[in-house]
Amino acid sequence: MMDFIEFKDSGICNIQVDMIIKKFTLLHRIYKNTDNEYWLLSYTPKAKRRLKVQIKEEDAIKIINTLHLTPFEDSFFRNSITYVPTT
Q1: What is the reported pTM?
Q2: Residue 44: predicted pLDDT
Q3: Which of 14, 68, 70, 84 has a CA between 20 and 30 Å from the CA of residue 26?
Q4: Residue 9: Cβ-neighbour burial (10 angstroms; 0-12, 13-18, 19+)
């Protein structure tokens, strides 16, 4: 998945949305924080975070809608939502 991300030192990274959608697994998440920033997260099979990059809202919404990701609201942070793939 890292091959399809144009990394930057800070700010929003450009991604190849179609390739990310093909490679998205149960180990990946889309996180929306209280500032309406979207983050692409990747975890190892042992639940350690491997990757966290900020992505564009349009890209995140396209991934969420295409893969029918399920939203889970955070009970600690009011407006934070994690989008998780269903099994």
Answers
A1: 0.90
A2: 94
A3: 14
A4: exposed
The answer to whether residues 42 and 49 touch, using CB atoms and an 8 Å cutoff, is yes
**Is 40:28 a contact under the CB 8 Å cutoff?**
yes
Token pair for 7: 């990394």
Distance of CA 19 to the CA centre of its chain: 13
Token pair in block for residue 20: 């990310």
Distance CA 43, CA 50 (A): 5
The tens digit of pLDDT for each residue in 31-85 reads: 999 888 999 999 999 999 999 999 999 999 999 999 999 999 988 877 899 999 9
List the beta bridge partners of residue 30. Answer: 40, 83
